[in-house]
Write a structure and sequence with these properties.
With 232 residues, the protein is an alpha/beta fold. It has 8 helices and 7 strands; from the N terminus they run ααβαβαβαααβββαβ. The relative contact order is 0.18. The protein binds iron/sulfur cluster (SF4). Iron/sulfur cluster binds at residues 62, 64, 104, 108, 111-112, 115-116, 196-197, 199-200, 222.
């Protein structure tokens, strides 16, 4: 699989066409999607599940998500018959808090490393294609995102990271949700714009900067999209 050639081709294609091309040129049985059940993830999943109904849906279950997120995850898993893979950290919340205290207050980088990054690194090992719902507009840290990028995991394994909606705007996201009448995470109706773990997610003061509501504006990324090395 020539990742460079695939990346060049995919960059010019719509999400639907890119997906058709990728599934025709790669092994769909080695694809997965990381999904936090935010709107972008659900759009990618809606496109993907129609072609690969049993695609593994990796949910990083930190134990700190909103109750609404867990309820929505379970509802959509049932309604869409998803192949949900609940990715768990080594320690439960109780074990971690008893050993380290409440890291999301004292050291969120370590907390994300233990509860998201390390479990994801392991969970990605069996796959060749990693679909995400990332968009360039979401954050300055994502402005150079390509629709398809070769990434290398810390183990040395290379895989293709695909963000079909990389060039989509916020209004395109909600245009798709409305047109397809997708059920969406109810927290959006309360004013949340970027939704992760409950202790680290707030309604952003600046609606033009959705991720300013994450980690009290002190950081922009949890690390799951920065730990792997882009190789091109
Ligand atoms: S987002 Fe917050 S609670 Fe979730 S893993 Fe990171 S620091 Fe911990």
């Amino acid at each position: 699989m020539d990742h460079e050639q695939i990346a060049r081709t995919v960059e010019a294609l719509s999400p639907e066409d890119a997906l058709a091309y990728l599934l025709g040129t790669t092994d769909a049985s080695r694809a997965c999607l990381t999904c936090s059940f935010q709107a972008e993830d659900m759009i990618v999943l809606d496109l993907l599940r129609k072609k690969v109904p049993d695609v593994p849906v990796l949910f990083l279950d930190t134990g700190y998500h909103f109750a609404n997120t867990y309820e929505y995850r379970d509802r959509m898993t049932k309604d869409w018959s998803l192949n949900l893979v609940n990715v768990l950290p080594k320690q439960t919340v109780e074990q971690q808090e008893s050993q380290f205290g409440i890291l999301n207050r004292t050291n969120p980088t370590q907390c994300c490393q233990l509860r998201k990054v390390e479990p994801l690194m392991q969970a990605l090992e069996p796959y060749e294609i990693w679909f995400t719902g990332l968009r360039r507009e979401q954050s300055p840290t994502r402005k150079n995102l390509k629709k398809a990028e070769e990434h290398r995991l810390p183990s040395g394994k290379a895989l293709l990271k695909v963000s079909l909606l990389a060039d989509w705007t916020w209004s395109q996201v909600w245009g798709y949700v409305g047109a397809k009448q997708l059920d969406y995470l109810p927290l959006y109706d309360q004013g949340y714009l970027s939704i992760g773990c409950e202790p680290c997610t707030a309604i952003p003061e600046d609606p033009n900067n959705p991720r300013s509501g994450r980690w009290g504006g002190k950081k922009l990324e949890c690390g799951i999209h920065t730990f792997s090395e882009r190789t091109e």
